[in-house]
Design brief:
Elements: H1 14-33, H2 37-53, H3 57-75, H4 82-96, H5 98-153, H6 160-176
Helix pairs in contact: 1-3, 2-3
């Protein structure tokens, strides 16, 4: 039987490490989802500082998760799932009162018509801009082809004086058109 010295066997188990890695990834995803950069920063800093004192990644992850979640609760004890609670309360209130819901639906329909008109005008502006871009790209095609043949011609022997001559020739060909 193998004895382990200097630590708990629980902290040296790979399965436990993978569990805490999974929990840490879920926690990071949750912080990113709710745009909670302060707590994410605390998680990263706590993990980094802990890694300076121990090489055991399980300990690092446990301490980083605990410190960041304590920080989160200390900063806003009721706000962690506040949005979810409000959504559930709004759904419960909406099912009891049908007359207000119908009025809200009429207002939403009017707003959708306004948004549709704005969206159509924005889409038309985008189409106009895209057409201008395509026309400009078509005008540039001969110049690009000339530059490509020019580059292929002088690909092997480019130095400073050859490059300056190439620039002069390009300027002359553009000025002639």
């Amino acid at each position: 039987m193998k004895k382990t010295y200097g630590g708990n066997i629980f902290l040296k188990n790979k399965l436990v490490l993978y569990i805490f890695v999974f929990l840490a990834l879920i926690d990071v995803y949750n912080h990113l989802l709710y745009n909670d950069t302060k707590t994410l920063f605390v998680l990263i800093i706590a993990g980094y500082i802990t890694s300076l004192f121990t090489e055991n990644m399980t300990v690092v992850l446990i301490i980083a998760l605990v410190v960041s979640n304590v920080f989160k609760q200390a900063m806003d004890p009721n706000g962690y799932y506040k949005n979810m609670r409000e959504n559930f309360e709004n759904k419960d209130e909406g099912s009891n009162d049908n007359s207000e819901t119908e009025n809200d639906n009429d207002d939403n329909f009017k707003n959708e018509n306004i948004n549709t008109k704005e969206t159509l005008s924005d889409a038309q502006q985008m189409v106009d801009i895209q057409e201008k871009l395509i026309n400009n790209l078509e005008k540039m095609t001969p110049y690009v082809e000339k530059m490509e043949t020019f580059a292929n011609k002088y690909a092997g022997n480019i130095n400073k004086s050859n490059f300056q001559n190439m620039v002069k020739q390009v300027k002359q060909s553009v000025a002639n058109k």
